[in-house]
Amino acid sequence: MSDDSRAELIAGAVVLAVAAGFLAFAAGPRLMPGGGYDLIAAFPNVEGIEKGSEIRLGGVPVGRVTEITLNPETYYAEARLRLQDDIRLPDDSAAVIQSDGLLGGAYLELQPGGSPENLAPGAEIEDVQGAVSLLSLMMKFVDSQADDAPPEEAQ
After folding, report:
1. DSSP output for 34-90
2. What pLDDT is stored for residue 3 in this prediction?
């Protein structure tokens, strides 16, 4: 094996190792060891949230959404949340769908309550707030501005 081919082989191995590192970093808790535990949250609207969406607590990533299904009895979207083992939430905590910005994606924000009792694995977060549609907010604003406009005088 010549020196050139050996150098190319080493460079290729380094590139593959760096790419694997970026992949593991981007996947976050999904590929991290330790498993975690699941919670359920039922939302009237999960617009912007999908399988793999990030879950944050105080702005810090603490888990991922692992599944979203429609409950045929309540017609609510049930999200299964996988949290890190070391995160324990009070049983009066809230789950709120937040937007990263006007053009950014959505994530699930957990807001801890003040109860001394914690949610058990598999429990349901009762206090939820679904996604707010930016388009519907803009339409309400435009409608309110049209209602506030003074009537034009006839000439």
Report:
1. T--EEEEEEES--TT--TT-EEEETTEEEEEEEEEEE-TTT-PEEEEEEE-TT---B
2. 74
CA 2: distance to chain centroid? 51
Spans of the chain, pLDDT less than 50: 29-33
Q: Give the domain ranges of the chain.
A: 1-32, 33-142
Residue 95 pairs in a beta bridge with 110, 128
Judged by phi (left if over 0) then psi (alpha if -120 to 50, else beta), residue 35 lies in left
Q: What pLDDT sits at residue 28?
A: 55
The pTM of the full predicted model, rounded to 2 decimals, is 0.66
Give me the residue label for tokens 């919670």. Answer: 39
Q: Is 97 helix (H, G, I), strand (E, B) or coil?
A: strand
